[in-house]
TrEMBL record:
InterPro entries (alphabetical): LSM_dom_sf (IPR010920), MS_channel_1st (IPR049142), MS_channel_C (IPR049278), MscS_beta-dom_sf (IPR023408), MscS_channel_2nd (IPR006685), MscS_channel_C_sf (IPR011066), MscS_channel_TM-2 (IPR011014), YbiO_bact (IPR045276)
Highest rank taxon of the organism: Bacteria
Name the record gives this protein: Small-conductance mechanosensitive channel
Extent of Low complexity compositional bias: 58-76
Pfam families, per database record: MS_channel_1st, MS_channel_2nd, MS_channel_3rd
Entry similarity comment: Belongs to the MscS (TC 1.A.23) family.
Annotated ranges, domain Mechanosensitive ion channel MscS: 533-598
Entry's transmembrane regions: 131-152, 182-202, 214-238, 259-283, 289-310, 344-364, 384-408, 428-450, 488-507, 513-535
Annotated region described as Disordered, given as residue ranges: 55-76
All residue ranges annotated as the Mechanosensitive ion channel MscS C-terminal domain in the record: 604-691
Membrane topology classification: Multi-pass membrane protein
Transcription regulation keyword on record: no
Amino acid sequence: MLALIARPLVFVIALLLAGPALAQAPASVPPEKVKQLFELLDDPSVKAWMAGQRNQNAGSTGAPAEAGASPADASPNAVAAPGQMNTMASSALDGIKHHIERIARTLPLLPGQFARVRAETMDDMSSKGSAGVLLLIAMFIAAGVALTWATYRLTRPFRLWIIAQPKDTPIGRAKKIGGRTLYSSLLIVSFALGSAGAFMLFDWPMLIREIVLTFLMAAVATAAVRMYLAAMLVPSFMQVENAVEVRALPITNETADHWFYWLPRVVGVFAFFAAAFILLPGLGIDRDGMMVLSVGADFVLLLLLLLAIWRRPRTQREGAHHTAATWLLTSYFVVLFLQRIAGLYILFWFTFAAFFLPLAIVLAQRGVNFVLRPGSEEAGRPTIPAVTIAVIDRGIRMIFILAAAYFLARIWGLDMQSMQDGDTTTMLVLRGLINIIVIALAADFGWSIIKALIERKLGIETPHAVMGEEDVPTLDPQQARLRTLLPIIQNILLAVIVVMAVLMILASVGIQIGPLIAGAGVVGVAVGFGAQTIVKDVISGVFFLLDDAFRVGEYITSGRYVGTVESFSLRSVKLRHHRGPLFTIPFGELGAVQNQSRDWVTDKFNITVGYDTDIDLARKLIKRIGLELAEDPEFKHWVLEPIKMQGIQEFGEYGIVLRVKVTTRPGGAFGMKGKFYVRLRQVFKEQGIELPFPTVHIQGLQNPHGAENAPLEIAPELKIAVAQSHANRRRKKANTTE
C-alpha cells in the first residue's frame, strides 16, 4: 500500500517543486490588472449586463456595435447585431471556442508560473527542500501503516467473530459485511491517526504544514477506498472461504479482483490530483493555469479508466455483449473528457450523474437482494421480511437520488429555499424538476413500505394455509378476511398517494391547487349523479365487506350465480364456477348471499336397500364404515361428525330409502362420499344385503317354435319402449340431483 500511495505522490510533488529548468523558462506574465480584466470579462453577471446594454443601444439607435468592442462580445451570452443570426447552438460554439482559446493562451505561461511557485515555496522550505518534504510524507505514511498493523494484531478476536458468523442465513451475511465494514473503519481511523494525527503533534512552517497535511489526507482517502472495497468485494488475497457467498455483490472472483486492483488506483490518482489543485492556487497558479492543468489530470484519469474497462474480465451474464458494452463505456468517458476540455461543466456533471446514479442504484438493489436472500435449506431457509428489504432498498435509492439532486442544484447554482422573481425560466424549470423528483421519491418510498406491509399480511411470503393440531391444512379466518380487504385498501391507498403527490408537485411548481380541488369536488358531485349504478355497486360492496359476507377462496351462491370467490374490485366480485366459467358480478346485483364455505357443512344423502333387508344391521354397518373413514389419515382431519344413518327416509319404488348424514369442514365431504360408497357396497355384499336397481320383467311372450328351452324373441317396438323408459327415468333423476 505504501508503494501505491508513494508513486502518484512523487509525481505531484515533482510537478509542484519543478527544477531549475522551469526557472529558466520565460517569465513574461501579463500585468495583474490585465489578468483581472480578463477574469472580470468572463464573469457571467458582467456578460449579462454587457449583453443588456448592447441590446438596449441597438434598440434605441439601431446602430451596430462599435469596432472597439470588448472581447466579451464574443461570449455565449452576446446578442447578435441586426442582420445576424445568433442561435443557441452558435452561442454554445462561441463559448467552447473562447474556452479553448483561453487554454491555448495560458499554456505557454505555465512555466513562468511554476518558476514563481518554486521560488516562493523554496524560500519557505529552505531548511527542508523537496526531498525533505517527500521524506516527511513517506515517514508519516509509514507511521500510519505501522499503527494500522498494530490495530490489525490487537483486533484478532473481532476478526474471529466475523469469521464465525453463518453465511447460510441473511442475518449472518449482513453481520459479516457489517463487521468487515466496521473493521475497515477501525483500520482507516488507525491510519489517519498514525499519519495525519502524528503530523499534527509537531509545529511546522505554514507551507510545509499545508502541503504535507493535504497529501496525507489524500493518502487516507485512498486507503479508505481500498479497505472498504476489500470489505465489500472480498478479493482473493484475503483467502476467505466461499468468498462468492459472503460478498456484498453477486460477482465472480475474477471480477472482484479486477475492480479491487483498479478502483483504488483510479481513486488514489484522483485524490492526489485534487490535493495538488487545492494547494496550487495558494502557491500562485492563477485560474487559467488551473484550467490547463485540469486537462492533463483529466487525461491521466481517462487513461486509467479506459485501461480498467478494457482489461475487465468477461462474465457469463454479458456474453457476446461484452465488446459492445466496452465500446459504449469508452465512448461515454471520452465524451466526458471532451466536455471538460470544452468547458461545458454543467453538461459534464449532468452526463456524469446520468450514468453513475442509475449504476449506483442498480448495484445497491442487487447488493441488498443478494445479501438478504433466503438462507439455505440446511439452515431452515430463514428469510427477511419483505417490508425490511423494501425499506432498505428504497431508503438507499432515495439517499442516492436526493444527494445527486442536491449536488446538481449546487452545481447549477439553484436556491432551493425560495422562489425568486428574478430567476430565469431555465432556473425555474430546473428547480421545479428537482422538487418533482423529491416528491416522487417520497411517494415511492411510502408506497413501497405500504405495499410490502400489505403483501406480508396477505401471506405472500408464507403458505396461506395454517397447520392445525395434527398438521391439518386449514384456512385461517383472520388471514382470509385480510386477503379480502387488504387488496381494496391497497388500491385506495395507492389512489390517495398518487393524488397527494400530484397536488404537491403542482403546488411546488407554483400552480394554485385550491381552485383545482374545488373544481374536482364539483365534478365529483356531477359524476355521482350521472353514475348512480356505479355508486350503488361501490356502496353495496363496502357493506358486503363490512358484514364479512364472503372472503376470497370461499364458495358462495347468490341467486343464479354459484362459484368460488377469486378476487374483488371496488365495484364487482369475480366468481369461478366449478365447471370453469368466471362470473364478474356487480355488488349491486348480488342480493342475498349463501356462503357454503364458512365453519362447517352437513351433507345428507340417501341409500336404497331391499325390502327384506335387516335395517338394524344396515345401520350398524353404516356406522362402522363411518367410524373407519373418520380414522382414515386421508379424511380424519376433515371429519367433525362421522357418517351415520339418520333413519328411514321413505319406501321407494325399488326398496327402502335410508337417510345418511355427515358433518365436515367445508370441502371435506366430497372425496369421502366416494370412498364410502365403495366400502359400503363391499360390506353389504359380504353380509348379503341387496342394493336394488331398476329392472324390467316382461310376461306373456310365447316361443314361436314351441320349444321350451329356446330363446324368446322380443319385438323391436318393445325394445325401443323399454330403452326410452330407462332414459326418461335417468334424465329425471339427474335433474333432481342437479
